[in-house]
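ok so for the tutorial part 2 we go from a plain amino acid sequence to predicted structure tokens. step 1 is just haveing the sequence, like this:
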Amino acid sequence: MFAYIVRRVLYAFPILIGVNALTFALFFMVNTPDDIARMHLGNKHITQSSLDSWKEARGYDKPLLWASEQEVVVDKATETIFFQKSLSLFVFDFGQADDGRDIVQDIKTRMWPSLAIAVPTLIIGLMVNITFALLMVFFRASYVDLGGVILCVIIMSISSLFYIIGGQLLVGKMMQLVPISGYGEGLSAIRFVILPVLIGVVAGIGGGARWYRTLFLEEASKDYVRTARAKGFSELQVLFKHVLKNAMIPILTGVVVVLPTLFMGSLIIESFFGIPGLGSYTIDAIQAQDFAIVRAMVFLGSVLYIIGLVLTDLSYTLVDPRVSMDN
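step 2 — the prediction. this is what the tokens look like for a chain of 327 residues:
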């Protein structure tokens, strides 16, 4: 297993280099260092010397990819924005944002509001989706099953923006049960995250319950389930002791792979509810054209996704002993 983990870590480096290069190319295809400096300094009455000073202070005064004026070949590649902005990422030194803020400190501060929304949404959503899916399977081929599938399709077909705006209007404005925006410290934060969590759970029922229903129906049609029924087990015993247990591998895949990425936050929900998490942090950075934050968040998201994939593979060995990490 240790050799497997080492191989996966080594495989991750080319992927991360490619993601970083693609982010760099897309960002600087749209913006030049002068554009970035002008946006941060303001568009009026900006002299070239002010732009040059701003770029020099933040390392944007170098060539993008190739320093042809350098005499040493190594310096031609290293004395560039791409190399000097990218190398530190692999030791998780994200440096400072273009406005001078410490990115690592921002991440440490903003990850908690994101987790306060993401973790309850994942746990509650998982329980609701599995329960609803088991209910449809229990009443399969009946009006309950048909109505459940239709409801799932309807929920999936509606934009998440509808749930956000509708929830803010109904629960926040008309019923005035919870605030519709902002965030608090300590336990006072609970009333600010109730509505985002509720909306996240409701918006995910359609896709989640349909997927679990498909998994459970596939398991329910297998021979071991028919054998269990022939032995006299009730339908509830069959569903919970056999179907649900043997469907845990794909369920585990979907859960474990998202665990490391939970603290990255939800871009839309955090922006609409004014939650100071990493999702809104990334949106604000894109709007401000802050390349330092954008590259850091894209890189961090890639690392966490790779960790999620490794954890998923490792978790297979716990759920299914037939799976081996030797190959």
